[in-house]
Structure formats: C-alpha cells, structure tokens
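Students often ask why we bother predicting the structure of a whole assembly rather than each chain alone. The short answer is interfaces. A chain on its own may look different once its partners are present, and contacts between molecules only exist in the joint model. In this exercise we take two input lines together and write out one structure for the complete complex. Read the inputs first and try to guess which parts will touch.
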Amino acid sequence: MNIYDESLKFHEEKRGKIEVVSRVEVNSVQSMSLAYTPGVAQPCLEIQKDPDKAYIYTRKWNTVAIISDGTAVLGLGDIGPLASLPVMEGKAVLFKTFGDVDAIPILVDTKDTEEIVNTILSIAPTFGGINLEDISAPRCFEIEKKLKEKLSIPVFHDDQHGTAIVVLAALLNAMKIVKKPIHTLKVIINGSGAAGNSIAKLLMSSGISNVIMCDRKGALYRGMEARDAEKQAMAEVTNPYNAKGTLPEVIVGADVFIGVSAGGVLTKEMVQTMGKDAVVFAMANPTPEIFPEEARAGGARIIGTGRSDYPNQINNVLAFPGIFRGALDVRASEINEEMKVAAAYAIANSISEADLTDEYIMPRAFDKNVQMQVAEAVRKAAAASGAAKV
Amino acid sequence: MNIYDESLKFHEEKRGKIEVVSRVEVNSVQSMSLAYTPGVAQPCLEIQKDPDKAYIYTRKWNTVAIISDGTAVLGLGDIGPLASLPVMEGKAVLFKTFGDVDAIPILVDTKDTEEIVNTILSIAPTFGGINLEDISAPRCFEIEKKLKEKLSIPVFHDDQHGTAIVVLAALLNAMKIVKKPIHTLKVIINGSGAAGNSIAKLLMSSGISNVIMCDRKGALYRGMEARDAEKQAMAEVTNPYNAKGTLPEVIVGADVFIGVSAGGVLTKEMVQTMGKDAVVFAMANPTPEIFPEEARAGGARIIGTGRSDYPNQINNVLAFPGIFRGALDVRASEINEEMKVAAAYAIANSISEADLTDEYIMPRAFDKNVQMQVAEAVRKAAAASGAAKV
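Now the answer. The structure tokens for the assembled complex follow.
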C-alpha cells in the first residue's frame, strides 16, 4: 500500500487526530461546585477585574488557534477550508507533541481579507497566540500585518516565518562547513511568495545583505516594470547591486540558492555556474526545484530539501512548536525578528560543530531537546527585546 | 475556606480545565508521513471531492464550539467574553465527562448580533455543532434564528433549550406523583427571557396549553401595551384565556410555578393561592425565586431548584451532553422540538415510577447512564423527524 492509501486508512481509523480532554474530574456535587457553578464565579470575577488573570485561571496561556482558509495548502493549493482540516489537525498534533501547546484548528469560510481579519479579532480573546496557516499570498501579508497591529498576542504565519527560521538555521550550519562568513554571501531566493519574502527579511536581519529575490520573470530590482506591491517593496530592500535578469543570469557566482517556488525550475547547468562550495536548498514539495542527485552532479556541495527521504531535511516542525512554547511561556506580545533569529541559531547550534557534515546540517525533526533549546532561546530573546510580559 | 476561595485556588493550580491532546504518535518519518505530510494530502483531496468525508477523516464529527460573548453569565450578568472563559471551560469539561463530546470554548469579542452571526458562520466548517452559551436576550434569539437558517449543523442555545428540557422532565415526573394529566395544567412561567420563552414553547409542544408567561409587569397577554418583539410574539401563542394581571393575581389556582427570573420574587402567600398539590420550580441562581422551606410552608408539594444543596435539582447538565452526543452520532442537521421532547422524556423515565417521591423527581446529575439514554432517545427522534443524516 502506498503512503497515500495508507494515510487514508489511518485517518479513517482515527476519526480525528486531536481531542479535547478534561483536566479535572467531575463526579460529585463538591467537584462540580469547584469546576463549575457556583465556585467558578470567583475566577470569572477576578478576570473581570484584571484581564491578565485569564492567564492564571484558564487555559488561554497555552492555547493557540491554527487558522486557515485553505487557499495554499501544502502541495495542494486552494482546496478550501474544510478540506484543509486534516492538515490543521496534523499541525495541532505537532504543536502538542513537540511543544506541549494546545492548538485548535479554526477554519475560516471566506477568502476576504477583511472578513478573515475581523473573524480572528473577534475570537482572539480565547487564545494565547495565533498561528496562520496555508493562507495564500499576498493576502497572508495583509492579514498578518493587520492582526499584529491590533493584537497583543503572538501572530505567526508559519509558512513565512517558520520556513525562514529553518532555512536560516540550515544556512548557518552550511557556512560553518564551507567556512564563508555569512555577510559576504550572495544568496538567490527563487520564489517571492509568502516564504520567499520572510526568508529574505530574516537573512537580512542576520547580516546577509546581498540577497536577490527572483520570481518567474527573474530578479526583483529597483526600476523594474510594476509587479505586485509586495514585490515592489521587496525590490526596494533587497538586491543591493540591483542585478537584473532571469534566474540563469543572476545565479552566476551565487553562494547559495534557496528555492521556495516550484518543482524542477533549477537545472544542473545553472548550479554549475554557482560559486565554489555552492549550497542548494530546494524546498518545493513534494518535487524540489532540483533533485539532490542533479544538484550534486552540477557541483553543489551542500544540498537540503523539504523532504524526509533525503539528507538535510529543512522542516518547519523544528521551529514552530518551540517558538510558540517560548513565546507563550513569557506571554510575549509578538514574535519579533530577534526571537526568530534566536530560534534559528538555537536550531543550528543544537548540532555541535564537530558533528556537522555535508549531509548533516539539520537536527532530526523528532528531537524534543531541540524544541526545548528553541523555546529557551525564544524566551531569552523575547525578554531582551522587550516582548516578554512576564 | 468557602467554595469561592477554594475554587479560585483550584483554578490557579489547574491553569486550565481542558486540554487538547494528540490521538496519534508522531515519532518517526513514517508516522509523520501518515499523520502529516505527504500522506495527509489524500484525506484532504477526498474531502475536497466530498465534503461529507470530513466527518470520517477528521474530528469534526465530535467537535462542538461553545460560543459566548459573556453578556449573560450564570448569576454574574454581563462580565465580558474573557471573564466568562472559566465557565466555558467548565462547560467543556461537562460535555466531555458526560457526553464524550470535544467542546471548544470560543469567546467572541463583540456584542453586535450581526458580527457574532458572521463570526460563527465564518468558523463553522470546523465544527459538528454549535452550542451558544450565556448570550443575553433578546440578541440570543436572533443569533440562534439566523444561524439555524444558514447552517446545517445543530445550533443549540443551552440557556434556553437545555433549561426547557430539564424543566419539562421534572414536570413530567412531578405529574406522575400528583396524578394530574399534563394537558389540564395551568402553568405560570415567571421570567420572559431566554429560558422562559423556550420553556413555554417546549411545554406547548408537549401538549400543555394553559401556559401564562409573566415579566416584571405581570402576565403577557394579547392586547397588552407594547413590550419587546419577543414578548409580543409570546403573548400571541401563550395564555389561551388571556389572563391579565400581576404575578400574585394570575398565580391563583395555578398547578405549576416555574421561575426563571430573580431571587425572592415568589412569596409564601402567593404559593398559598395556588391549586392543590402545587409544584414550584424556583430556578433562579444562586438565590431561587423562593427558598424550598418557604414554598413548603406555603403548601407547595413538589419543589425543585437549580441548586445542588436542595432535593430535586433541575440541572442542565442532565440534558446537553446527551443531546449533543445523540445529535452528533446521527449527524443531525438541527436539534428540533421532537428531539428536545424526547430528551425530556428520557430524563424523566430514567427514574422508575415506583421510585419517584416528592423529593426525588430528577436523576442525579452525575449518572452517565441517563446521558446515554438521552442520547439514544435523541438519535431516534432525529431519525423519526428527518433530522438525522446518517
């Protein structure tokens, strides 16, 4: 049986991958009086007086909404909210398993940006954090921006920032191997959607200035024919030498290729034109921009993908559970750039430098110790950057 | 330590009365591939083709949203959404404990009827049912009505219908003791808010025609000075002899008094004017319309309250977990009058007639067998009334 049929059978047997359970026993008048009426009136009144008390008397402190409209689901695209529920439940499983976070899928039955924002604002009091998931660009940018303006709990679009964090982690370790200082790198990011933008911003936050973003037409540069507003904005802040041209043209001499685009767009011939000790992260799923065998044949030294069946899997699951764990623990008001960079360094440094090899730059996805190191780094960065409330 | 201080300590120790857990283990590439990417794509695609498959491949079938704006919380009134969270978590505990339903509190941060409706419609795909909770009248009527029109999953306002169901159950058993046929009864319902209206409708659905509703000004009757739209509507369908007057005036000769109003509004003297074998259900919480000792002194034979420290507690928890259990099991499109009446009979009949006494007309709130009988009755009534989809 292939993995798809097996998964279908598995889902049918489970009838749901998550479940809400009670943390208290109610089996007597006494226990009912404590957990429910009349005793419950007291924590209610305390929260009414001081809303912060909700973090003490309820589960808000550990509860995150996983919100999706189902428009950009994994490799499936716009399948609608209901059809995305198996993915969102899976994400909730990962949140719990690796971060001990109570995550609740919330599907929104609209594609209208304003409606999605208003719905989330309306239900926000329930939650300690908001994880946006699989919402298509450019709507995801506006939704996240508006929510961050209006909410004082973490709002995190994992497809953007989770991806950016694990890519930075992989890049940091790759550079330890090839011994290039990161500020000297020429990095090509192919794909200017949700993930591409966030990767570019995070690399720049980390001191890498020569970042060139490409879309299907080629490099984003100042003075280019108008594309969408996000692309124009990215052209302003990336590509310091204002390189122009298609991917095969601008990739010449690059140290790093990061693909968050579509399967097969990178050829062996293009890799051959890259600099010495080239690094290729081909993240498109399930078909990467270039298969590792081809990239190797083109001369790439360190190769990563999103897939678990090749070495160097660059997987979001290394980031988001620990990041939310850390953010929730200090009641962070946001997940800022400092916290993201700290998370990337924690992931990278979870492997000692002596153990790094061309085929081992990322820790295993199932290592809970990594998550705990990420959480600790995020707590510290939140405190240092002023985002921590406790 | 009193119950309120004890409850505060209890809530602080628990830091949340519910929790989201994973039903699957993810500790290997293989298990990740089944529960998440890439295998999860298959159930997604199946649901995209046939939305009903969400009931098979996800937890939707067993998941209910407990939605509140915090405007009419227990005895506390309008304390706002966040402060109501301890109550909503408590409700989720009862849903799980007695009905094995996964219930998720969702607080809505608005009092605007239209906004609440739109928010709920927007997030509805996630859920197998909607339980409205502690939303003040008359907004609760409009919200429920609009949701029922637009959604094909059960929408249930427990403060209305849950209360009505347990009151009808108590009434059925009381009448077995005093041996009055229910269609002959004169029933006074004091309180014309959410619960009062629903009780009146359910009693009428059960064959009791002489139901007189009172608000602070007295009986609702045809031709009365305009009050609110809901009250006008209830005046049209209740009070067949169009009795006029204040509570002390219309209660004369009544067989049953049902209070869903405010503490202390019924006096011993009023009870003295009721008919033989008078029944008094004084449901206001925590202070009933009349304390049982006083009602007894006034000549009432069977007395019920909402409190656990008196006999005959008339408690919603006997109804809503089993009702949702039954409705979810048959994927009911709604919870209709037939299902509610069936639930009331199931609660009443869970005590054998031989065991009934003046002080034992309702089963214990902690008897899971009662819930299972309610669920079974609801499944059957759903099938018989055409609401069951499977």
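Check your guess against this: The radius of gyration of chain A is 22 Å.
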